[in-house]
């Protein structure tokens, strides 16, 4: 009989942020695959869980996937955890999930703590849509390219960032995206949790003034500030574009798009003039 693969979310800081179900599953698993066995051992000891662990990280993912797939096919129950939060979200695990699916092994996710979602919920930025980008590239050119590609994104943008790169990241955000609202969440659920709000330049100045920049960071970038509503009469708006050399029908389309109207509505109003 095939085994089971559980994807288990673990706390991102406060050890109380784990579900009863996760504690039970970790206690029942045959083996726990961990990004860092030393880090996971602290959690297991806190809850009195004594189960064998095996390392599963970026550098041995291919090798370990084959080994764990064999164990799953032999009927074992495997629990996959990362150092913190939901496995596979900017963490290894994709190969193992794919291998389980290809071998007909049931995969069960156990939801729980997530730095990105926790930061978004408390940020004060729009939550109806969001774009999660993982970690920004380390190289300045690649980082700039990623940010510039998101300039027209109609959603709150979320990145994870390391403490030794957060100042560079904020500077890159300011250059690529301007003075839009930014929130930096640091050490979420931990003793020194804080939220910094303002523009990228303002937050960068606050952090740069500190003796040291420490902790785990989540960087959230709001939508571009909406331009003030255009109350120019429709005929005047169309005429202004025509004077600039825009064909009349194209001018009508542009004005309609800017005002959230149909082309027919604008055309009919011009006829009423």
Structure explained in plain terms:
By secondary structure, the chain is an alpha/beta fold. It has three domains: 4-110, Cobalt-precorrin-4 Transmethylase, domain 1 (3-Layer(aba) Sandwich), CATH 3.40.1010.10; 115-221, Methyltransferase, Cobalt-precorrin-4 Transmethylase, Domain 2 (2-Layer Sandwich); 234-272, no CATH class. The chain has helices at residues 20-28, 37-46, 61-73, 94-102, 115-123, 140-149, 166-177, 200-208, 234-243, 248-259, 263-272, and strands at 4-8, 31-34, 53-55, 77-81, 107-110, 130-135, 156-161, 182-186, 194-198, 217-221. A five-stranded parallel β-sheet has the order 3-2-4-1-5, sandwiched between helices. Strands 6-7-10-8-9 form a five-stranded mixed β-sheet, sandwiched between helices. Strand 2, helix 2 and strand 3 (53-55) form a beta-alpha-beta unit. The longest helix is centred in the N-terminal third of the chain and has 13 residues, at 61-73. The radius of gyration is 25 Å and the shape is elongated. The chain starts with a strand and ends with a helix. The mean pLDDT is 92.
């Amino acid at each position: 009989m095939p085994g089971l693969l559980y994807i288990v979310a673990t706390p991102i800081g406060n050890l109380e942020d784990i579900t009863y179900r996760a504690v039970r599953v970790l206690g029942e698993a045959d083996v726990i695959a961990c990004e860092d066995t030393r880090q996971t051992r602290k959690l297991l000891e806190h809850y009195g869980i004594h189960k064998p662990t095996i390392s599963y990280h970026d550098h041995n993912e291919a090798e370990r996937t084959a080994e764990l797939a064999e164990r799953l096919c032999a009927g074992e129950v495997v629990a996959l955890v990362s150092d913190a939060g939901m496995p596979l979200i900017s963490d290894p695990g994709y190969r193992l999930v794919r291998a389980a699916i290809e071998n007909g092994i049931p995969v069960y996710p156990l939801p729980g703590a997530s730095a990105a979602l926790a930061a978004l919920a408390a940020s004060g930025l729009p939550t109806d849509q969001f774009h999660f980008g993982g970690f920004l590239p380390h190289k300045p050119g690649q980082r700039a390219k990623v940010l510039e590609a998101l300039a027209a994104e109609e959603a709150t943008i979320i990145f994870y960032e390391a403490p030794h790169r957060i100042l560079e990241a904020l500077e890159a955000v300011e250059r690529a995206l301007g003075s839009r609202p930014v929130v930096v969440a640091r050490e979420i659920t931990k003793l020194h949790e804080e939220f910094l709000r303002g523009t990228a330049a303002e937050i960068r100045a606050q952090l740069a003034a500190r003796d040291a920049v420490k902790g785990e960071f989540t960087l959230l970038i709001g939508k571009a500030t909406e331009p003030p509503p255009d109350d120019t009469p429709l005929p005047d708006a169309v005429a202004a574009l025509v004077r600039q050399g825009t064909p009349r029908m194209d001018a009508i389309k542009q004005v309609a798009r800017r005002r959230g109207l149909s082309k027919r509505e604008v055309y009919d109003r011009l006829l009423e003039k």
